[in-house]
């Protein structure tokens, strides 16, 4: 696969961020606010409860991982939205660019932008609240990998939705992480949930990360095979999302939707 | 070199019960400028979109230098490029950034040198770091043409490239395009509503109406052959009474 077209998609985002601090600020500001807010909440809970739970590690750690997942998803969708907002589909898709290259470009952009957010969160969480993720050791790898893969999958799926239903459906994309969060148990064990919600939670790879994180912080054991399953599950979601995007793209080419995205307004 | 830059064979695009393009076949040679004419809604842009691979024909085939776009889309489009009034380049990128972005998409070799040459050719050097969204219509058209030539295409599609230009700027663009065609490496498909421009620029024209080709021929000879004083008069007559003329033509 030729790499330069993939680099083009990521480079375009770099150009846009370089020329407009307004685009960079949300990558840093919201995650910083989240970490500070939840950091103080966790510190307060540590001071008023005698449960033995380290809220800094469990609560703030969970927020950090969840924000990372959200940033990955948004990194992918923001790169896609650039083509929506600038009505650029016909220019992009009338080029030799393959769909696999386009999606790879979106993923590369998602990696880059989410890493910036992750670094900011790690610095603030470590400097102000003494949360050091190095303590997780090698567990960091599967944790970040699962969240990264699932963020990519949802980002690609959300992009497919906007391609299919038009720019007006963009507002449906932003609440997706909030809609999922009750099911994945970011702040509480899955056992807390009613069985139907728990069933959905088991289908969502991040739930395994948060269960393992809580178990690790509490000094208990967790299932390594469950973590492996979550990696496999997340990888399946990535493949599924790529398949859906490709199917929607083909529908858009067949129905004239893609051509009309540029020629006239789609609502 | 393959003899044909483009071969469209029995192209049809159907939306429900409407045939936007109905059994359209034509060929375009290297070095030739083919005008695609017709009233609004005639099927010109639909045809161009099918050639560009962003719209799938209901039936029929498109071959670019003998490569079937349905089977080998990427290879076919690597030899193609286009500029269209309705497909402006992203306004939040500068002139240089736009050319670099599309140059990478088309995997253009020695891209920096190519960009420099095109900036010079289209008098865009002083606008190199200007966002394309704030360029004048003429400057945006020159940028769109520079983008369209990035990969030295063997097939160039120009959808009303001079629509927003003043007469002087339009004349300059036409001269450039004619010079390009004279070099013989590239076939050019050109749509325009400016009949003077078509007579001056195109070697051959196709008249489309209601998705069908009504007439084809030399734009300088067609009016005489069909008893019209000018190409514009012929255009108006065909646009208003396409079915009658279709019967006469056949």
SSE topology string of chain B: EEEHEEHEHHHEHEHEEHHH
What composes the largest sheet of chain B? Answer: 6 strands, mixed
The whole-number mean of residue pLDDT values of chain A reads 92
Beta-strand residue fraction of chain A: under 5%
The Cα radius of gyration of chain B reads 18 Å
Helix content of chain A: over 70%
Order of helical and strand elements of chain A: HHHHHHHHHHH
Total count of domains of chain A: 1
Task: Give a short summary of the structure.
The complex is a heterodimer of chains A (about 270) and B (about 250). Chain A is mainly alpha-helical.
Walk me through what this model shows.
The complex is a heterodimer of chains A (267) and B (250). With 267 residues, chain A is an all-alpha fold. Chain A has one domain (4-263). Helix content of chain A is 77%, strand content 0%. Chain A is built from 11 helices and no strands. Chain A is globular, with a radius of gyration of 20 Å. Chain B has 250 residues and is of the alpha/beta class. Chain B folds into 2 domains: 4-79 and 154-249, P-loop containing nucleotide triphosphate hydrolases (Rossmann fold), CATH 3.40.50.300; 91-152. Chain B has helices spanning 44-51, 73-78, 95-105, 111-121, 137-148, 167-182, 195-201, 222-225, 231-240, 242-249; strands spanning 4-15, 18-29, 33-37, 59-64, 67-68, 80-84, 155-159, 187-191, 204-209, 212-217. Chain B has a 6-stranded mixed sheet with strand order 6-7-8-3-9-10, with helices on both faces. A 4-stranded antiparallel sheet of chain B has the order 2-1-4-5. In chain B, strand 1 and strand 2 (18-29) form a beta hairpin. In chain B, helix 3 crosses helix 4 and helix 9 crosses helix 10. The two termini of chain B are 35 Å apart. The chains are: A mainly alpha (267), B alpha/beta (250). Chains A and B meet through helix 1, helix 4, helix 10 and helix 11 of A and helix 1, helix 2, strand 6 and helix 3 of B.
